[in-house]
Amino acid sequence: MNNFDDNLKVLRDEIDEIDSQLVELLAKRLAVTAKVGELKSAEGMPIFAPEREAHLISKRREQAEQVWFKW
Fold first, then answer.
1. Which residue from 22, 29, 38, 16 is spatially nearest to 56, judged by alpha carbons?
2. In this structure, are residues 40 and 46 in contact, taking their beta carbons and an 8 Å threshold?
3. Considering only 31-35, 60-64, 67-71, which range has the smallest mean pLDDT?
4. What are phi and psi of 28, to 5 degrees?
5. 7: domain CATH number?
6. Per-residue b/e over 5-14, b at no fewer than 16 CB within 10 Å?
7. How far apart are CA 39 and CA 35, in angstroms?
8. How far apart are CA 35 and CA 29, in angstroms?
9. Half-sphere exposure (CA, 13 Å, Cβ side) for 35?
10. Domain that holds residue 58
11. Is the confidence at residue 1, as pLDDT, over 90?
12. Fewer CB within 10 Å, N- or C-terminus of the chain?
């Protein structure tokens, strides 16, 4: 392999590791959201909270924009 191939492999390996971490984080998030649903159900609360979802999406969009502007 030449230097280009070595560098490309290192970068692709890094991407693969990040992807694996994302999958793990999404699995953790899913587990926590299931617990939230169980807790809310036990209290007779609706599981879906549209205002919370809208707020969450807005905050994550802001966060993403701030991260992208760093590039």
1. 29
2. yes
3. 67-71
4. -65, -40
5. 1.20.59
6. eeeeeeeeee
7. 6
8. 10
9. 6
10. 3-69
11. no
12. C
What span, in angstroms and rounded, lies between the C-alpha atoms of 50 and 31? Answer: 20
Query: Which ranges of 1-71 would DSSP assign to H, the alpha helix?
Result: 3-42, 50-69
What predicted TM-score, i.e. pTM, was given to this entire model? 0.79
Per DSSP, 49 falls in state: -
- Distance, in Å, from the CA atom of 45 to the CA atom of 38, rounded to the nearest integer, reads 10
Answer yes or no: is pLDDT of 70 > 80.
no
The number of domains in the chain is: 1
In the chain, the DSSP E strands lie at none
**pLDDT tens-digit series, residues 6-35:** 999 999 999 999 999 999 999 999 999 999
